[in-house]
Amino acid sequence: MIAVEVIGMGISPDDLTDNLQTLIRRADILVGAERHLETFLDVPARKQILKRDLKTVTGKIKRWMKTRKVVVLASGDPLFFGIGSYLTGALGAENVVIHPNVSSVAAAFARIKIPWHDAVTLSLHGRRGYREFLDAVRQRAPVAVLTDPENNPRRLARLCLDNGIVDLEMCVLEQMGTDKERCRWVQLPRVARLRFREPNLVVFRRNRENGRTLRAAHLGMPEEWYRHDHGVITKAEVRAVTLAKLQLTDGLVLWDLGAGSGSISVEASVFIRNGRIVAVEKDARRIEQIRSNGQRFGVRNLKVVQADLPDGLSSLPRPDRVFIGGGGKKVRNIIRAVAEYLKPEGIVVVNTVLISSLQAVSNELKRSGFEPAAVQIQINRSRSMPWGARLEAENPVWIISGRRPPKKHSGKDSHREK
Which domains does the chain possess? Predict the structure, then answer.
């Protein structure tokens, strides 16, 4: 059995070293795409065009390699979304020698002069699912995408725009390594009016000409990252403790009642990736802010509902967790309404800055069957002075939480799961 040599062509034959050229010219059988084989028409080896039917060609390679030297030509780097991984599995890793070369992605980032050590690379060759792509462009940058005629730059741009991802620009690198190579940065709305040569590769990055920046959500983000009304927003440190008290895990349903700017909903999405987050707010201006902040941080499982609490809860999916950040004089009525819908062993958390509300909320939670507990958060932030720094106090906040005891099996649950 003679080991099969799998040689990466780089982005053009110019990337082949003298040693690789020698291996190719000594081959008995030369396998590759038609465009690769055309480069070696003067090589006397038998040529086998590599098309989509890999299984048939691999069967021939298995027969040939018993007595002859087989060389397979691959695009870019054979093990980077290439045929190398397929052949090592089909022929056995011990029967394959891989010769790496410059990948198309490495070449693309070299062309645009952007570091790519933290880039996300995806291949959409022959794929229909786009969730991984949308997650990547929402949360990370830069992102490189290997396209195909169906999953082309125009479709990718439309996917972004249709899903509210607008803070990107894309670079389309066409026919790299040929004399028709072209590289151009374009804004997403313009892509639909353009045509691109095949094959091509797309790189996405944050739009440097747009003031808004789509970031990956994390706990305790600065208030200035959100759209909100003149400081009316749960402070970063209070947010972090509140979310800890909610004890969030993936797959839960969270109600954020009196959501304000939606900061709790946005940061809850760090934990609830596949569950549901419902932000309820009565103010139309804040409703728009919640939607904007959700889009800004790529929260795809956020539903925004305009309602004057405690109205509007009956049509919502039944919650595992509830946060009440607003309510004022209605807070006790809201707690009673929440008690009707919260699942067994669910948790409700209420934030307040009013001394009178501390006892009122605690008493109402207890009357509604919860086991209440409270903590006070006092945040002091440093402020620069001419000869040093001082601490400036924020309003103290009470965080009152209650857990519902396990359900007793004494009757039929009257609330439908949604």
Answer: 4-102 (3.40.1010.10), 105-206 (3.30.950.10), 223-403 (3.40.50.150)
Which 3 state secondary structure label does DSSP give 97?
strand
Question: Could you identify the residue written with the tokens 């004022």?
Answer: 328
Distance of CA 13 to the CA centre of its chain: 36
Please write down the long-range contacts of 332-337, taking CB distance under 8 Å and 24 or more positions apart: 332/360, 332/361, 332/364, 333/309, 334/257, 334/258, 334/309, 334/310, 335/361, 335/364, 335/365, 335/368, 336/310, 336/364, 336/368, 337/309, 337/310, 337/313
CA 73 – CA 85 distance, rounded (Å):
14
CA distance linking residue 359 with residue 342, whole number of Å: 22
Alpha-carbon distance of 265 to 281, in angstroms, equals 12
- 12, 36 contact by CB (below 8 A): no
pLDDT tens across 108-127, in order? 999 999 999 989 999 998 77
> What's the pTM?
0.55
